[in-house]
Amino acid sequence: MPRIQLLSDHLVNQIAAGEVVERPASALKELLENSIDAGSKNLQIELQAGGTKLLKVIDDGCGIAKDELELALHRHATSKIASMDDLARVGTLGFRGEGLASIASVSRLTLTSRFKDNGELSPHAWRVEADHGRLLDPEPAALAAGTTIEVHELYHQVPARKKFMKSDSTEYAHCAAMIERIALANPDVAFTVIHNGSAKNRWQAGDLNKRAAAIIGDEFVKTGIPVDEGFGSLKLYGIAGSPTLGKSSRESQFFFVNGRFVRDKVVQHALREAYRDVLHHNMHAAFCLFLELDPEGVDVNVHPTKIEVRFRESQAIYRFLITSLSKALAKTTAGASTQDTPASIDPETGEVLAPTAIPPSGELKPQDYAQLAYRHQQAMPLPMANEPFASYGTVSSEPLALYDKMYGDLRYSDSRSDHSQSGTSRNNTAQPAWMKQLEAIRPTANSSTSNDFVPTGFLPSGSAANTSLPEADDSAIPPLGFAMAQLHGVYILSQAQDGMIVVDMHAAHERVVYEKLKTALDLQAMPMQPLLIPHVFAADKLDVATVEDHAEELAGLGLEISVSSPTQLAVRAVPMLLKNSNPVELAQAMLRDIRQVGVSQVLAGRRNELLATMACHGSVRANRSLTIPEMNALLREMEVTERSGQCNHGRPTWFRLSMNDLDKLFMRGQ
């Protein structure tokens, strides 16, 4: 049996390198984090062969003093912490002091730095070299400011490690992904990336929107939902991607804790639950979110590469994340613009729209919109080819003639005598644009204006076809406009102030019904269904302890579980809504989720899945004919329903075609 002995420092560093420096991207991450901690505002990154031949980082930070250069390459030497108290509230990206030493033990490393103290630069820079752990004496060097680190031949003399390297293109892809994460976390820092002598990316310093647009995409920013929520020392801000732009992978998910990119099970579960109601099937949401909290509330020293963290109050963090993000996603009502979205950008599709003058939706109530719907339009039957419009003279005036027949007695019943006597029109300043066009070609008083086209069945209750209605206000057109027709029993065509809206009536009504079901259920206690024969199943000690600790909370969620023996549990009642589910599988899944994320949101996902099914079967189906008032009522409901931009399966419920889009289709103005 070999005897226990102390390992050499060089071997210890190489063992540490196996944990910290997994691949070139890991080494580059350590170098960039040191540059960010040094206050750099411009970073230039040069790579060769995916980082296996050369990793070079040039920054303009504060630099390193001459007498600290050699110390920087020693294990556990750092300027970030000095005591246990500092370790408990780490506020920098790096703090262990083993990154440079580990990299230097498996490569040829050159460190050149010019120290800046209180704004004054040292007379010149100094350089120190390390060849696979063997340090050379510092020597003078030329450098304007900051620090330059070069890492040559990573793992060249460690063939056992080098054989696990992938191709150059794969290693570069990992490096590029890591650079993007750090660039997103620091939008005020300029980045330049060069690979094999050619510039790959150059991001100027700016704000988060510009940096996210450059890395994740313009569409993500244009359609994204701004998030800015806070509670106590917790703050969540950033951009949540539109649910309609779901991805097939998680590559566009970026979450940062105090500026550090992390992957945490609690965080991922909370974000997934927040998107559950609006994301389509197995698609993944895109987001770029930042969580800020007291450094003492998070432990970043739980993973060799610091990509995982542990929260001191994980349940509080979970509740804050799901509440904040759900609140932001709930603002995606159909036709509504987010607070930070320009008025010329459609929040759902990201289209550039014509300038509009729509008043804030808070000034009008849904019932006001319903009344305006009757005033602006009635059912519009398509005229047959043999129906004459002789009084209007041209074929192009047929739609105007139809509108005039529909609205003539309603709009001008009180003023027709004035027209016949003076021949002058009404004050154009008080008329919508389409009424001014009617005025220009309106028949004389002795022309026949039959009221046969006015469908009295679509008028408000108690109104007659010749009832005089108040003037319509074109500036009060609601966000989704007024319904015009139904297409193939599937889509509703609506005229908005800036173009046309197409609505999937089943998807839209499905969301409206779903939100109503959730609200009705939340206002009542969870009903329970007692089981005639309890379902007994084997359980481990953790499950038994969970039941003993959270029995009351489980009963409040509608699930009654008792301990039958130290190794068995019995399900005695289940939620009424889930009475047809497998009690044992339901109990096991809930207990597992409770151990991971707590009891507060466990049942929400399963309950919502059931409500989604109920809403799907209870909403209007395709090929069902709707009347104009029914269509308008659905549009008004969409405008006041949370998350109505998507159905509960994540499909979009509406789409806008602006006048600019329609003009392009018909090449108008070209």
From TrEMBL:
Residue ranges of domain DNA mismatch repair protein S5 in the record: 212-330
Signal peptide: none
Tagged with keyword Magnesium: no
Start and end residues of each MutL C-terminal dimerisation domain: 483-626
Biological process, per Gene Ontology: mismatch repair
Task of the protein: This protein is involved in the repair of mismatches in DNA. It is required for dam-dependent methyl-directed DNA mismatch repair. May act as a 'molecular matchmaker', a protein that promotes the formation of a stable complex between two or more DNA-binding proteins in an ATP-dependent manner without itself being part of a final effector complex.
UniProt similarity note: Belongs to the DNA mismatch repair MutL/HexB family.
Protein name: DNA mismatch repair protein MutL
Lineage, opening ranks: Bacteria, Pseudomonadati, Pseudomonadota, Betaproteobacteria, Neisseriales
